[in-house]
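Check my protein:
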Amino acid sequence: MTYANVEFTDGSVPCTDPAQPPVGPGNRFNTCAADGETASAQPEWTGVLQSEYSWNDLVFGSDVYVSGLWSYKGDTEAPGDVEGRLDTESFSVLDLYAGLRNHRWSAQLFLKNAFDEDGVLSKRPLSGGYNEITVTPPQTVGPDRHIQFPRGRVAADWCRCPVGKCAPGTLSFGSGGGRASALARCAVMVAVRLSAEKSLRHP
């Protein structure tokens, strides 16, 4: 959890005071006394809590895990917003995850914004008294997966490995065509693997 309370102690700030003359060509903006007014549109309270529990080597030699991520954003006020037009209320969001993982691949199911919270992240004033509002993404359920293919030096070692003489755990790409053919097939396979890794990986 974090706490921040930032206020002005003196001076004046541009404001939206309806008691003052309307803003126009002859009156570009109004000002209000700043003493005691909020100096930041950030909330006083914010918080993030993450927890995870895992069972090692439980299924297919992989770890099984469940995890949760809870985030909280407190009330906000905008500096100079006398009418409270840009105020936002506090909200919290809970994301849940469950899956399998090992050193080569991982697969998980996620439930984001588990309680479908409609939190307002920010407001921006528009003409005509309207506001542009950014809200939290809606409740989302889906799968996620990641496959780690060897790359760099490991991939180069594959291409240097003669057919039929590879060390345990490395790949052999057939027995026909000799070393030159094996190297060519290896280069193609590495390119395909790296391309597949790029398409399967999610941010």
Summary: Helices lie at 153-160, 178-200. Strands lie at 2-3, 12-15, 30-33, 45-59, 62-73, 91-101, 105-112, 120-125, 131-135, 140-147. The longest strand covers residues 45-59.
